[in-house]
Design a protein that fits this description.
- The structure is a single chain.
- The strands form three sheets. The protein has a three-stranded antiparallel beta sheet, with no helix packed on it. A three-stranded antiparallel beta sheet has the order 2-3-4, with no helix packed on it. Strands 5-6-7 form a three-stranded antiparallel beta sheet, with no helix packed on it.
- It is globular, with a radius of gyration of 14 Å.
- It has a single domain, classed as Rieske Iron-sulfur Protein (3-layer Sandwich), CATH 2.102.10.
- The chain is mainly beta.
- It is built from no helices and nine strands.
- The structure holds FE2/S2 (inorganic) cluster.
- FE2/S2 (inorganic) cluster binds next to loops.
Length: about 130
């Protein structure tokens, strides 16, 4: 069983969506205010489960979507960075093809309460945004 992403202690949770809002292989971008900085992230539905990741490719560290909010491959199986084609597993965020194989997207902790989906600031690696 995978480890859920760690959140910053004491960071407030923010309502980012509702269960049923996204169909399989669909995504929704949102922004969290974390320690004075904005963190752009994506909420995704993959096979009925919700996951969220920081919108920052592990190859160069830039946004993954050229077309706004387009993260999934055409067949809906993977997340893909539009810049150089890094391909990620939706359930784990692990890069399985491309220039950053083995690295993982930074997960955003989610909490689902009834129909509401909340996110907390992630513990970011590489860049200190606290
Ligand atoms: S920046 Fe994402 S693959 Fe290069």
């Amino acid at each position: 069983m995978r480890n859920p992403p760690k959140g910053k202690k004491g960071s407030p949770k923010r309502l980012i969506g509702r269960v049923g809002e996204l169909a399989h292989a669909n995504s929704k971008k949102f922004t969290l205010r974390c320690g004075g900085s904005s963190v752009e992230a994506m909420l995704i539905n993959f096979e009925g489960e919700y996951f969220a990741y920081v919108n920052r490719c592990r190859h160069v560290g830039i946004s993954m979507d050229w077309v706004d909010n387009q993260f999934f491959t055409e067949n809906g199986r993977y997340l893909m960075c539009a810049n150089h084609g890094a391909t990620y597993e939706p359930k784990t965020g692990e890069c399985v093809w491309g220039p950053c194989v083995g690295a993982s997207l930074e997960g955003v902790p989610l909490e689902i309460e009834g129909e509401k989906i909340f996110a907390r600031c992630p513990t970011l690696t590489g860049v200190d945004r606290s």
